[in-house]
Amino acid sequence: MSFNVKDMLAGYDKDNLTIATVCSHSSLQIFHGARMEGFKTLGICVGKPPRLYDAFPLAKPDEFFAVDSYKDIPNHVEELAKRNVILIPHGSFVEYLGTKQFEALGLPTFGNRKVLEWESDRKAERVWLESAGLTMPEGINDPRDITKPVIVKYQGAKGGRGFFIAKNYHEFQRKINHEQEYTIQEFVLGTRYYIHYFYSPIAQEGYKLSKGALQMLSMDRRDETNIDEANRLGSIKELEEVGITPTFVVTGNIPIVLRESLLPKVFEMGERVVEKSLELFGGMLGPFCLETVVTDQLEFKVFEISARIVAGTNPYINGSPYSEFIEPGLSTGRRIAQEIKRARDLGKLEDIIT
Ligand code: AMP
User: Whose CA is nearest to atom 6 of ligand 1?
Assistant: First the structure.
């Protein structure tokens, strides 16, 4: 990295910080939460400001910053830095810009960018999660070893696009596109919970870890088309016979709560993954999500981690059945803004911004 966040932050007017993000994904919640905490807000968009925000005045950024393409953001670093911008990454932001460009982007960014190396590579992700003691779906290296239903995931595929289920080697051979890199995972049958945590290295109270504290703000289940409603037309077998294959494209998010007796496990998993991240790369900061399937043995299998705000937090703009026990009306977007405010007031911005 050729820029120095420390120096940039030193030059910032800390009383005039601007919370900025790309106008998509969870931006309404990020802007809304930042406004509630008294920050200025800036929405990065391609071309004209999206009209959508006119419909939601309380979540409209104070200012739009138009670029020709998201890949062009690195060319506007100086203009953005003049506005004392702190970038809030979300899934679409990182995807539109590309992992490498995002890592190299010369602007103060909320969270630890080093997490990207561990998260964007499925093999590294498995090393991290398994060494933290989490149970992942079994990985299968050789397709000839497929002896039970598996899900095949293409590297870098977004929103589950192109993923497919295979029940045996023959079916795998029929469906695989060998031109793309892929991984094979046991297909875990159970109920899906996408758990939204928030780790603060500067918090003094709450569910304490070796450094800071962990919160669990909410959870959701993704609504994925067409698999989630495929059974309206018949069994998957029947559908495949007429050439319709199940897909996993996310279209929305459904709020959910978990059996209360499983909550201690939720915290144990969150704790382990944060402690391991502190050891491996200095810690994953702020919001993150463990994507899990709970089996009928009440075992959590974690198939993925997202180390930033996920769109599954969007149903909870005015709080969730869990965040209500922390602070009324607390969204993840607002929690991010609070963290920045607290770190600023403690003179610890460098602890949460890279
Ligand atoms: P991912 O991109 O890894 O989040 O996967 C996309 C979707 O595929 C998930 O939201 C799940 O619905 C499904 N999925 C992923 N991995 C598994 C698994 N090992 N077993 C069952 N379903 C899975």
Answer: 160
Q: Are residues 206 and 340 in the same domain?
A: yes
| Ligand 1 binding pocket includes 244 (Cβ within 6 Å) | no
194 lines ligand 1 (CB under 6 A): no
Q: Are residues 97 and 171 in the same domain?
A: no
Determine the residue type at 277. Answer: S
The tally of domains found in the chain comes to 3
Q: Is there a contact between 111 and 307 (Cβ–Cβ < 8 Å)?
A: yes
- Residue ranges of the alpha helices (H) in the chain? 5-11, 27-36, 77-82, 91-97, 99-104, 115-119, 122-131, 169-175, 236-241, 263-281, 332-345, 349-352
> Tens digit of pLDDT for each residue in 49-66?
999 999 999 999 999 999
- 185 in ligand 1 pocket by Cβ < 6 Å? yes
Is the pTM for the entire model greater than 0.90? yes
Structural domain span for residue 306: 112-135+188-222+250-354
Residue 241 in any domain: the answer is no
Spatial neighbors of 209 by CB under 8 A, at least 6 apart, are 199, 271, 274, 275
Query: Is the domain of 195 the same as that of 284?
Result: yes
pLDDT tens-digit readout, 216-252: 999 999 999 999 999 999 988 899 899 888 899 999 9
Residues 298 and 323 in one domain: yes
Instruction: Check pocket membership of 125 for ligand 1, CB cut-off 6 A.
Output: no
Is residue 222 lining ligand 1, measured as CB closer than 6 Å? Answer: yes
User: Using alpha carbons only, what angle is made at residue 250 by residues 246 and 253, rounded to the nearest 5 degrees?
Assistant: 125
- Ligand 1, atom 2, lies closest to the CA of 160
Indicate if 58 and 123 belong to the same structural domain: no
Same domain, 160 and 199: no
